[in-house]
Amino acid sequence: QVQLVESGGGSVQAGGSLRLSCAASGSRGMCMAWFRQAPGKEREGVASALFDGSTYYADSVKGRFTISRDNAKNTLYLQMDSLKPEDTAMYYCAADSRVLAFSTEYRYWGQGTQVTVSP
User: Fold this and answer.
1) Taking a C-beta distance cutoff of 8 angstroms, is the pair 36, 89 a contact?
2) Which residue, 19, 4, 3, is CA-closest to 115?
3) What per-residue confidence (pLDDT) applies to 96?
4) Which of 4, 25, 85, 91 has its CA 20 to 30 A from that of 72?
5) How many other β-carbons are positioned within 10 Å of the β-carbon of residue 100?
């Protein structure tokens, strides 16, 4: 059974930084990703990381967000810098044994952590 627990969300001003963490159990070797969903909008992929270290980013966050994973600690991170008000959303961690990149078909999801960026 895979369990994902996100933490690290909060409220910051534009230009600030936050670091999200996703503590995972049972996800060894899986593709993992961060998604976000703003009110009234569809869930969208933000960044994904394969077990081999390959990473992928949405165009909207390239150069500002960094995804990383510590396989020894079974933890996925998302370092978010230069935050903008449009980054405000609930952020979710996801995992799947398939390589899904930004597909929303991930089998396992966390409960989410809220990120709010004020102007």
Assistant:
1) yes
2) 19
3) 92
4) 91
5) 19
